[in-house]
Amino acid sequence: MLTAYIAKAVEKARYEPMENGRFFATIPGFKGLWAEGKTVEAARRELIETLEDWLLLAFRFGDDVPVVGGIDLNKVGRHAKTRQPA
Questions:
Q1: In Å, how far from its chain's centre is CA 3?
Q2: 56-66, pLDDT tens digit by residue?
Q3: How many whole angstroms separate alpha carbon 46 and alpha carbon 7?
Q4: Interacting residues of 80 by C-beta distance below 8 A, sequence separation 6+
Q5: What is the pLDDT of residues 19-49, one digit of tens each?
Q6: Which residues does 1 contact at the CB level (< 8 Å), separation at least 6?
Q7: Cα–chain-centroid distance for residue 6?
Q8: Do 76 and 64 contact (CB within 8 A), yes or no?
Q9: What is the pTM assigned to this prediction?
């Protein structure tokens, strides 16, 4: 489910060339999430890694994440937060 969510989210990514020749990547609806890379592909790879971290932080702090492609991770994140450590 997480892999499908990330894939769907990255399909919506926007890439913009920067003045320094690098590429800036964002995903609409994901506040504060961005990445950059030397090429569009490098920016995409960095965006995926950053999105993974962004999701983990959102779950940790109980923040809602956007529903993407009909996949709602919010229930998963809330469930994970209520579990007690072993």
A1: 11
A2: 999 999 899 99
A3: 13
A4: 59
A5: 999 999 999 999 999 999 999 999 999 999 9
A6: 71, 73, 76
A7: 6
A8: no
A9: 0.83
The tokens describing 85, both together, are 């450590």
Counting Cβ atoms within 10 Å, is residue 71 exposed (0-12), middle (13-18) or buried (19+)? Answer: middle
Paired with 68 in beta bridges are 71
Beta strands 34-37 and 14-17 are: unpaired
Kindly report the CATH class assigned to 2-82. alpha beta
Residue by residue, DSSP assigns the chain as -HHHHHHHHHHT-EEEE-TTS-EEEE-TT-TT-EEEESSHHHHHHHHHHHHHHHHHHHHHHT-----BTTB--HHHHHHHHHSPP-
Residues whose CB is less than 8 angstroms from the CB of residue 3 and which lie 6 or more positions away in sequence, other chains included: none
Domain positions in the chain are 2-82
